[in-house]
Amino acid sequence: DGYFSYSGTLSYNGESNLQRAGTGHFNKDNFYVDGLWRNTFTGENSVGSPASLTTDYLIPIQPMTDPNWEIVGTGYFDGTTDKSIDILWRNKVTGDNAVWFMDGMQLLGAALIQEVPDLDWKVGATADFNADGATDIVWHHATTGLNFVWYMQGTNLITTAQIQTASNLNWEIVGADFFSSDANPDLLWRNKSTGDNAMWFMNGTSLQSTAMLPYAATYWSV
Q1: Cα 122 to the chain's mean position, in Å?
Q2: Torsion angle, CA of 75/79/83/87, rounded to 10 degrees?
Q3: Which of 31, 163, 206, 221 is a Cys-bridge partner for 147, taking CB atoms 3.0 to 4.6 Å apart?
């Protein structure tokens, strides 16, 4: 259990309170992908890298003590060339959305972006869907199965585009990345009821094909 603690700085109140909230090159080494962690009990946030699988390897960053704010994604939202991963937040009570602008593991500032008051809209993933160098946001509606991409320029919403609807509401978008050999981010899906996993191979916002992935029991989460 001590694997997830940071001695002298981060509180640790049971493994269930410490949740992996995202990934990115927070230390700007562009080699190891770092894990972003949030303690839902204390509001503390930290970054840990798989480069060192040792105890006490979580580096604290700015805390967020309001438990209604949840980390829902990471990406390049500041519109600069610093290539530091920023953090996307959503308020599960108000529907507000915000970005933390980061320089490595240091918080530089924050900005609100377009709010989404309908709390059934969930951020499923972040990726660059139109190859303009800016991170876009994928939304999934929990009660209708609708899916949309927000095309962003920094923190400005430029336009939206609908993706294929998912009729089975047990399926949730849990990630996006370049899983095929082209330059288009694909969507990773997980069935919260069965533990099944699937891939949507995309061309921008157009679904090209699908593939089932290996099963993982429902107590596992991406």
Answers
A1: 11
A2: -30
A3: 163
